[in-house]
Design brief:
The structure is a homodimer of 303-residue chains. Chain A is α/β, with parallel strands linked by helices. The first copy, chain A, contains 12 helices and 8 strands. The longest helix of chain A has 15 residues. In chain A, 41% of the residues lie in helices and 14% in strands. Chain A has an 8-stranded parallel β-barrel, surrounded by 8 helices. In chain A, helix 2 runs antiparallel to helix 11 and helix 8 runs parallel beside helix 9. The termini of chain A are close together. Chains A and B meet through helix 8, helix 9 and helix 10 of A and helix 8, helix 9 and helix 10 of B.
Chain lengths: 303, 303
């Protein structure tokens, strides 16, 4: 009965960029609260070297905790084959790879060219076996890059084709640094869909310049039904200067529910999960409007 | 060459609800800075009794100042015939009337029923004469009301028809309390346009629940080309509890310019006008993302 699917990426995208460190116990409480609100999929961490991003050092333990929650799809990020092996071992249901369309961001983020990343992803597709996790490629900086500036749409379309060819199950287009606008969203999702069909699945949007929900609406109009989002709008990329603020989960859920499009998420319980997040990171700035304004008088969630 | 027209309502909608009072001299500097950025239309004040809203007591003087700026369209709000007489005297180019679709908001805001407000507007249309100002009716609480809750769409459509019949030049639909969602925006603008045709002109949106730009995009898709907005997202309604935050002018302009839709507004100079606003009200919270994040690398305004 969900008509859009929201993957909460705060425990990964949010915490890897937060100024303050969340304890492992607090992460577990937060993940549990998100699942209790009806969030069906959570990107719980990243299998990067702990010395590069210490906030992700407990990802194995968080994956294990999340796997114990009935019905929850557990996603982890892997930047390479080594990370994928750890994700396999941990038992994540889905592994997402950041594959940058910007050459400069790719080198800053994963120390590989886009072509080398495609080769890594291909190796992982081959090694996962029949019962292995779903593999997603998130095309990072698909709408522009703070390092490189403009990212040609042709580069994104070609990269998507290479990733489909490499055998990924699904592809997301990511506005890593919050440069996208609704016209660009419509154009690029349409072009990539024409190239890879239904393998194009998700929109990963940032609210850096306030256009997160407008871009989500534009993507929805183009047929996108899977969205990444982060509670309280936490998020960013440690290797993309200026990247900040994922689209705010609670505001995104409110938009869809108000439009009559069910998300399967209970807004009151989601706000409760935000409270738990706020308690765990009391000095971290949280974003979003719904938590401050509250639901409209007489508001009815989508049936 | 402007494809969308933005009316800055901060000096009226923003300041009437601000916690701090702006001096008359600072208002003039702000209005001048807005015009210098290319803003073509500014709602500079409200002809309400000064004892009800002291922040609007200098509206005559601000109108006079604004009329001295070449090319600027000067708008003022009037809540009744008495306010309209003051607006006529002052020489405003356009007068906007708040006509609430919610009976309870109408009584709280203007101490009249919607029907009595339509009669007031009709009287003003008749008294303005051939060279009088343009008359706009802004249908307040068109998308819901914090006092009444749901506002039936039929009430909005009927009110629009009555206002068209009363002879107003143009009609705006206002989401006074930030309840609207994009599906509702599309539905209601379509219904009202079917009723009153091109007299339906503007969208007056609030960002209370973060949906301001998504709603603006939805309205644009429905053919709306006139938008009210407020620099730094100031705004609210003193007689609608919980109303806050107009859609943020600089973020709205950025969205359209990024989409290739010219607004005639220079973003750098608009951010300069925001700086002047911030200096004039140093303790007032300002909203919006663009001012913090800056323009994307290599950004080009619409041609």
């Amino acid at each position: 009965m969900r008509q859009v699917h929201i993957c909460e990426v705060g425990p990964r995208d949010g915490l890897q960029n937060a100024r303050h460190r969340m304890t492992t116990e607090a992460k577990k409480r937060w993940v549990s609260a998100l699942a209790a609100a009806g969030v069906e999929e959570i990107e719980v961490g990243s299998f990067v070297p702990p010395k590069l991003i210490p906030a992700m050092a407990d990802t194995e333990e968080i994956v294990r905790h999340a796997l114990g929650i009935a019905g929850l799809r557990v996603v982890a990020l892997a930047p390479n084959v080594k990370g994928f092996e750890r994700a396999l071992q941990a038992g994540a249901h889905k592994v997402t790879f950041p594959v940058s369309a910007s050459r400069r961001h790719s080198e800053a983020n994963v120390r590989m060219s886009p072509e080398q990343m495609v080769a890594q992803v291909k190796t992982c597709v081959e090694m996962r076996g029949a019962s292995g996790p779903q593999i997603e490629a998130g095309i990072a900086t698909a709408f522009g890059c703070t390092l490189q500036g403009e990212v040609p749409e042709d580069d994104v379309v070609r990269l998507a084709a290479q990733l489909a060819e490499a055998g990924v199950d699904c592809i997301a287009l990511a506005d890593t640094v919050g440069y996208a606008n609704p016209a660009q969203i419509r154009r690029l999702f349409r072009r990539v869909r024409a190239e890879v069909g239904d393998k194009l699945e998700a929109a990963h949007l940032h609210n850096t310049r306030g256009l997160g929900l407008a871009n989500a609406l534009a993507a929805f109009d183009e047929g996108v039904r899977h969205f990444d989002a982060s509670l309280g709008g936490l998020g960013g990329c440690p290797f993309a200067p200026g990247a900040s603020g994922n689209v705010v989960t609670e505001d995104l859920v409110f938009m869809f529910e108000a439009m009559g499009i069910p998300t399967g998420i209970d807004l009151d319980r989601l706000i409760e999960a935000r409270r738990i997040l706020g308690e765990a990171l009391p000095e971290e700035p949280l974003y979003g409007h719904l938590a401050a304004a509250g639901l409209p008088k007489g508001f009815c969630a989508a049936a």
